[in-house]
């Protein structure tokens, strides 16, 4: 009898143990809801320091130095065993990624990361896909509040520091701006703030102080498809046409000022100092009208201005809509850096040059990030660029097709509320 009692007791204990394990696992599994990011156990956050101070604190606790402004953060707490739970900065398949035990992170930071519900949070747990997933999953991940939001940093609305920009883009866009101290620093860029690949040969640099700047511009002829007068004049037909471009002189002086009531209005002035040796672009003829195709050949002086409104869209940085006058041309458009949607990070630019010195033109590019490993994961982006305008047969079509590239050379951000 005693042996039977011991055997039954042993079976009961084993049964209770197995039941408890099943119960724990089932409760653990039931806690996760696909439409509730706060319940996810294995996820990635496209983190940015300006989003919340927790993304600085977690770096401190993982021993990251120097601190990163933007990075990939992966958390995996699916295993009930705390020893198998971990957190990674970077690509978790990369041996050089910064990795730590989940237990190393303080309870308040753990709670903030687990409870994060922004659209930059992606569930990495395997999920069931269906025929509609390709259409609806992207939209499910977008939060209405993230589509358009006010700036995160005071710097984004201060004209005295508007030049600060850690992104260097090969063709056009905002110039790279490196601060020496707050409102004092330098900028350097290729093209103009509104130009795209193969559109202009202009390059320049400026010194900035308290919202004012002074700089010089010159030219690197190889930056355009500049051709000489000889040869046919029917256009390349290969998306590399050599008209509707901007051609710079040998040397220009530019000065400007951000009106100090916020980062929404700036004025400037360009004047030609030295035109250099004449090297005019080839003349292409519109076969329908018999008139030459237009270019903007810079030889005089130009008054510039721009109205802009900075904001965030899809968690972006340096997003703005704008309208202005630059080098005798009127522009309206939109630009944003590091937009985040459905686990992707990308830059977007759209610009319209109104009819005037040159023909009306629509230009756009999109550069995809998160395509490399390690440093390149957030610092490198590449993508297609397209210009549409009037062609030599008087039709509206593709003027140039090329690739644009940008690098993020540093992290210029304020470490607040650590």
Q: What is the gyration radius calculated from CA atoms?
A: 28 Å
The structural domain count equals 2
The helical percent reads 10-25%
> Order of strands across the widest beta sheet?
6-21-20-19-18-17-16-15-13-12-10-9-8-7
Query: How many helices does DSSP assign?
Result: 6
The residue ranges in which pLDDT falls below 50 over 5 or more consecutive positions are 16-30, 229-233
Sheet with most strands:
14 strands, antiparallel
Proportion of residues in β-strands: 35-45%
Q: Which class do the helix and strand fractions yield?
A: mainly beta
Describe this structure in words.
- The chain has 418 residues and is mainly β.
- It has 2 domains: 23-125, no CATH class; 154-408, no CATH class.
- A hairpin with a 2-residue loop joins strand 17 and strand 18 (344-353).
- It has a 14-stranded antiparallel sheet with strand order 6-21-20-19-18-17-16-15-13-12-10-9-8-7. It has a 5-stranded antiparallel sheet with strand order 4-3-2-1-5, with no helix packed on it.
- The termini are far apart.
- The longest helix is centred in the first third of the chain and has 29 residues, at 2-30.
- Residues 16-30 and 229-233 have low confidence and may be disordered.
- The protein has helices at 2-30, 54-61, 107-114, 133-140, 144-147, 376-379, and strands spanning 42-48, 70-76, 86-89, 98-101, 121-123, 167-169, 176-181, 184-190, 202-209, 212-219, 246-247, 251-258, 265-274, 296-297, 301-311, 317-326, 329-341, 344-353, 361-368, 380-390, 396-408.
- It has 6 helices and 21 strands.
């Amino acid at each position: 009898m005693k042996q039977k009692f011991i055997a039954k007791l042993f079976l009961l204990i084993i049964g209770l143990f197995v039941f408890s394990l099943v119960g724990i696992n089932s409760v653990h599994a039931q806690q996760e809801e696909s439409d509730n990011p706060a319940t996810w156990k294995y996820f990635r956050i496209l983190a940015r320091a300006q989003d919340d101070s927790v993304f600085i604190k977690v770096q401190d606790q993982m021993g990251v130095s120097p601190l990163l402004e933007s990075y990939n953060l992966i958390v995996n707490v699916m295993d009930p065993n705390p020893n198998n739970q971990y957190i990674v900065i970077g690509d978790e398949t990369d041996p050089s990624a910064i990795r730590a035990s989940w237990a190393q992170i303080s309870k308040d930071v753990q709670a903030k990361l687990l409870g994060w519900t922004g659209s930059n949070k992606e569930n990495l747990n395997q999920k069931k896909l269906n025929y509609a997933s390709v259409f609806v999953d992207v939209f499910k991940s977008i939060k209405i509040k993230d589509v358009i939001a006010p700036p995160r940093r005071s710097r984004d609305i201060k004209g005295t520091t508007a030049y600060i920009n850690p992104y260097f883009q090969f063709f056009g866009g905002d110039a790279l701006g490196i601060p020496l101290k707050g409102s004092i620093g330098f900028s350097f860029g290729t093209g103009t703030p509104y130009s795209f690949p193969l559109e202009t040969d202009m390059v320049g640099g400026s010194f900035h102080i308290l919202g004012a700047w002074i700089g010089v511009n010159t030219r690197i002829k190889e930056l355009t498809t500049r051709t000489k007068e000889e040869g046919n004049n029917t256009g390349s037909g290969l998306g590399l046409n050599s008209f509707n471009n901007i051609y710079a002189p040998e040397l220009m002086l530019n000065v400007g000022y951000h009106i100090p009531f916020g980062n929404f209005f700036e004025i400037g002035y360009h004047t030609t100092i030295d035109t250099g040796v004449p090297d005019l672009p080839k003349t292409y003829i519109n076969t329908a009208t018999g008139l030459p195709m237009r270019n903007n050949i810079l030889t005089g002086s130009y008054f510039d201005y721009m109205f802009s409104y900075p904001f965030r869209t899809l968690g972006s940085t340096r997003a703005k809509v704008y309208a202005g006058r630059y080098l005798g041309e009127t522009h309206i458009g939109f630009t944003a850096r590091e937009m985040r949607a459905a686990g992707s990070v990308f830059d977007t630019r759209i610009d319209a040059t109104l009819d005037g010195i040159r023909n009306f033109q629509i230009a756009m590019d999109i550069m995809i990030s998160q395509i490399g490993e390690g440093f390149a994961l957030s610092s490198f982006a590449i993508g297609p660029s397209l210009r549409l305008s009037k062609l030599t047969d008087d039709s509206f079509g593709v003027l140039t097709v090329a690739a644009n590239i940008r690098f993020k050379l540093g992290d210029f951000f304020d470490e607040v509320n650590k």
